[in-house]
Structure formats: C-alpha cells, structure tokens
Amino acid sequence: MMHFIHILFVQTWQTTLIALRALRRNKMRSVLTALGIIIGVASVVAMVAVGNGAQANITKQVSALGQNLLSVFAGSRRAGGVNSGLGSASAITLEDADIIAREVPDVVAVSPEVSTSAQAIANGRNWSTTIVGESQDYLKIRDWKLSAGSMFNERDVRGAAKVAVIGSKTAAELFGPLNPVGQSVRVKNIPFIIIGVLESKGAGMGGMNQDDRLIIPFTTAMKRITGDKYLRCVNVQISRSDRMDIAQQQITSLLRQRHRLPAGRDDDFNIFNQKEIADTVNTISGIITLLLGSVAGISLVVGGIGIMNIMLVSVTERTREIGIRIAVGAQPGDIRLQFLIEAVTLSLLGGALGVFAGIGASKLIGLVANFQAIVSPGSILLALGVSSAIGIFFGLYPAHKAAGLNPIDALRYE
Length: 414
Description:
Blueprint (H helix, E strand, L loop, with lengths): L1 H24 L1 H37 L5 E6 L3 E2 L2 E2 L10 H10 L3 E16 L2 E10 L3 H5 L3 E4 L4 H5 L4 E4 L1 H8 L8 E4 L2 E9 L14 E5 H9 L6 E6 L5 H15 L10 E5 H44 L1 H9 L4 H38 L7 H27 L3 H6 L2
Parallel strand pairs: 5-10, 7-9
Antiparallel strand pairs: 1-11, 1-12, 2-3, 4-5, 4-8, 4-11, 6-9, 7-10, 8-9
Helix pairs in contact: 1-11, 2-9, 2-11, 2-12, 9-11, 9-12, 11-12
C-alpha cells in the first residue's frame, strides 16, 4: 500500500513539474491568460469591500442616532393631495410628550424637541448654527457623551434656564482653542452660559453635521427663542430593542386617540423607528453588496473562458508532444492531470495576484472618495475558491481532449 502511494506521489510530482515547465516556456501567454482571473478576483474583492464599507458607514450613522430610539414627528398631513412634509403640521404638543412618558410602559426617557437656526455670538466671533431645545434626558437617549462640563438638569428645564451645551464644531468656530465651559454665548441678544461640550459625532443621517449645534432646555427655546407652541418632534427611548415595535403601536394608538383621528384617516404624525431603519438599511446594503459582487463575478467567468480557450490552443500546438508522452508510457490520466494542473495553476496565480490588486483598488477608492472600504476575509476566501473552481471547471474539457488523443495520429501531427 505504501509503495503504491509512493509511486502515485512520484508520478503526480513529475506531471506537475512538466505542467509548470510548459507554462514557463510561454511566459507572456501565461501572464495574459491569468490576467482575466486577476481582473475578476480584484473586481470581486474591491466591489465587496466597497459594499461592506457603505453598509458599515450607514449602520454607524443609524447607531449614532441613539439607543432604541423612536422619533415622533409632526406631519406629514395631506391637504388637497399635497404632502406638507415632516414638522409642517402643528400636531405634537408638550401634553403629547408627557402622556407618552406616562402611559407607554416601555418608555424609559422622553425628550421634546424644537429647533431653529440662529446666529450665535461669543468671544468676538459669530457663527450661524442650529439651536436645539431638548430635555435633560436627551444625551442619554442619543447615547451622546460630553468631553467637558455637564448636561443641564430637570430644574434648569422647569425654570427655562439660560444654559447651553455646545457642539464641538460650534465651539471651535466661536472659541477656537479656548475651553467654552463657563463662557457666555448670545443668541438673539439672549446670553447663555455654556455648561458642557459635546463629544464629536460627525455627520449624521442626511449628511448634517451633528457637531454644529447648541443644545438648550426645550422650555427656554420655546419661551425665549422660537416662540413655538408645538414641538418639532418627541425623542423616545424604549427599554429593549425587541419592544420597539410594540411601543410604536401603543404610541400610534395613543396619539390617534388624543388627536381625535377617525378610523380611515391618515395619521397627522410620523414615527421613525431606529430598529426598522437599521434593518432596512442592512437589507438594502446587503443586496447592493451582493449585486456588486455578482457583477464583478462575471469577469471571473470571462477569465475562465479565456483559460479554456488558451488551453485548447495549447493542446493543438502540443499534439506531437502529447503523442510522444503517450508512446513512452504516459497514461491518459497523466495527460489529463498535466493540463488540469496548468489550468488550476493559472487560475490560482491569477487569484492570488487579484486579491492584492483588489485590496489595493479598495484602498485607492477609499482615498479618492474619502470612504473606508472594508476588505473581509470571507470575500478573499470566496474569490480564491471561485478562481480555483473556475480553473478546474474550464480546464477539464481541454484536459479531457488532450488525454483522448490517439497516439498514432498525435505522432503524425505536424
């Protein structure tokens, strides 16, 4: 048994050396044949990396919204067939926010929100920024940390205190390297004392810079800045992610009852469910990544066809060589193995070079588009596995054709 295995190993090794020598004799043709696989594998790796990066980037933006967040927006109310848009209908009140906090069991925190844009003046500078009115629980709901100072408290909200928490972008524009905590900033000629600085969060959903803002108590915003009687939205934190759909149904039922909306009439509010957004984004991103990978995979098939074409040409060119090998004792299996090894070697070599090219291409895309493409080990293994399978699949027919040559006819071939 061991003797048989030894003989088999020696024959396989000799056949492999013959196959590699044949590829080396035609270096340029071998490189050009492998080029199709290189391009195919590089395309798959790069496209999947771009898809993964996009999915991770959007998921990060959704996660930055907060933990288990439901946002109840005023509108969109339809009038005469025209959709008036989010926040355009006067539908959400402070009483709505209070009753959501009291009567929905899974609610752990609520922050009524109003917002406007205004010029902020401080330290001899001015900057147009977003003024946001929130409750003391806003940072907890948004899972947002402070880099300095503290958040205003419930007493500040009840007393409509003139205090503010400043975003890092706004702080940099108004105060430069100075510590803003304890400094005064004026908004519509009203002085606010800065008590905290937000950690940077960067761009949020829709590309808006979340760091360019000034957060004040919503009572202060409504009384002193905007004069609004209605809320832009209510930010609601739910106890657990698996309870978000139930809580959304309860809030919908509660607000329809409070707003006296009859059955069959559209809601005059919209509820954005963070979990639903994340699930939808992940599904769409997964489909896009799969589509990108599939389109790139077509070039792998084209590369495989190129290998088959060149191997068939090689069989024709080396017909006399094949006849001589058979005449001196080579078995059809040896001939078949030789050509199969040549095809698999080309595809594996192309696959390995394609992986490096794909990683380089994904990094280049990231630099040019200011976008982080994520190369996953799974995509590399998949590309290498597919390239190997293509080498075997498209090498079988030429190998079978070479092994089936009649040695007499092959020796006569010129």
